[in-house]
Design goal:
The chain is α/β, with parallel strands linked by helices and 156 residues long. Helices cover 35% and strands 22% of the residues. α1 runs parallel beside α6. The chain binds magnesium ion. Magnesium ion binds next to loops.
């Protein structure tokens, strides 16, 4: 749990972060080593969840050994399923990080929504629903490792 005191807004108490997988944490299904190390550190501080349709069945191997919970989507309506997953955790106590169309409701509902503009790009609806937009996976994870960065971007 971390508390983020944001001038001009109510303090946000975060219990965890929900991540989209493809295009947000991984590119072409590959998780980089620096990003793996950052996720390991984040998992020591907050609950970390990764949502994926896991089309190629590789997600369990990609995230093996990391302190996070992998959740596989089971319907064709990923955007609704992701929002429902977040609601089950408590949307007001969780941040969300994503990039694609099926993350736009997730980011809108989350206490803090972060859009990753990585090599896969980002959908404009998701971009518009984000509280912050960052250029990379690493930058997204680092926001929660050093919440002063969140404060800098969100303060009034
Ligand atoms: Mg994605």
């Amino acid at each position: 749990m971390i508390t983020v005191e944001i001038p001009g807004r109510a303090a946000v108490e975060l219990a965890g972060v929900v991540f989209d997988m493809n295009g947000t944490l991984t590119i072409d299904g590959v998780l980089g080593e620096p990003e793996r190390q950052l996720l390991r550190r984040l998992g020591e501080r907050l609950a970390v969840y990764v949502l994926t349709a896991d089309t190629f069945g590789t997600a369990a191997g990609v995230f093996a050994g990391l302190p996070l919970e992998l959740h596989k989507l089971t319907t064709a309506c990923g955007h609704l399923e992701k929002r429902a997953f977040l609601a089950g955790l408590g949307a007001d106590r969780h941040a969300a990080v994503g990039n694609g169309f099926n993350d736009h409701l997730l980011l809108r509902a989350a206490a803090v929504g972060v859009c990753v503009l990585g090599r896969e790009g980002a959908h404009p609806l998701t971009l518009g629903n984000a509280d912050l937009v960052v250029p990379s996976t690493a930058a997204a994870i680092e926001l929660f490792l050093d919440p002063r960065r969140l404060v800098a971007g969100l303060r009034s």
